[in-house]
Amino acid sequence: MPSGTAEVQVRPGVEADLTALTALYNHYVCETPITFDTEPFTPKERRPWLLSHPEDGPHRLRVAADADSQEILGYATSGPYRAKPAYATSVETTVYVAPGAGGRGIGSLLYTSLFDALAAEDLHRAYAAVAQPNEASARLHARFGFRHVGTYREVGRKFGRYWDVAWYEKPL
Q1: Sign of the dihedral through C-alpha 2, 17, 99, 60
Q2: Distance between CA 30 and CA 27 in Å, rounded?
Q3: What pLDDT, on a 0 to 100 scale, did the predictor assign at position 3?
Q4: Angle, helix 135-143 to helix 106-118, in steps of 10 degrees
Q5: What is the rounded CA–CA span in Å between residue 9 and residue 113?
Q6: Strands 147-158 and 90-97, bridge-based pairing
Q7: Are 75 and 49 in contact (CB under 8 A)?
């Protein structure tokens, strides 16, 4: 069920969002160390990712869109933490906000919607990996009850340098 403010609607992601979601993600691929992907994707390449987030179940995709124009302002996902069966009650969550849409509470709207959607699922923990430094993401995760559990030092190399990744966890 869609939710949000008069300005922003938060809803499940659908196939019609694929091109805009791909463009948003590619911004982070090409311009930031926030994701450790290093090559941009085509919508066709991102389609399996989109389809891995149905409207129900533990792996969700929530999209924030401008209520009038339907421009994608960001998205949040929950996905598998690890592939082995014993990890099935854990998810990894993430939020991406469109360039220029930061500071409007989009990340909070997305996480509120995501965690509301996950409340009825058989889940025990959510994890988030945050490339460092990223104070805005650390504050967002703290607001949602995540606590820092450790940092992998220089775990990823992008843009000719190594980056640390802080890990956060939240009981569900």
Answers
A1: positive
A2: 5
A3: 47
A4: 40
A5: 10
A6: unpaired
A7: no
* pLDDT attached to residue 5: 47
DSSP β-ladder status, 90-97 and 125-131: parallel
Within 8 A by CB and 6+ apart from 14, the residues are 63
Token pair 């987030």 is at which residue? 53
- What confidence tens digit (pLDDT) does each residue in 76-102 have? 999 999 999 999 999 999 999 999 998
Give the angle subtended at the CA of 60 by the CAs of 106 and 62, to the nearest 5°. Answer: 25
DSSP state at residue 136? H
CA pair distance 110, 48, nearest whole angstrom: 21
Give per-residue burial for 121-152: e unless 16+ CB within 10 Å, then b.
bebeebbbbbbbebeebbebbeebebeeeeee
The residue type found at 132 is Q
pLDDT band for position 1 (cuts 50, 70, 90): very low
Residues 140 and 105 sit within 8 Å (Cβ to Cβ)? no
In the predicted model, is pLDDT for residue 157 greater than 70? yes
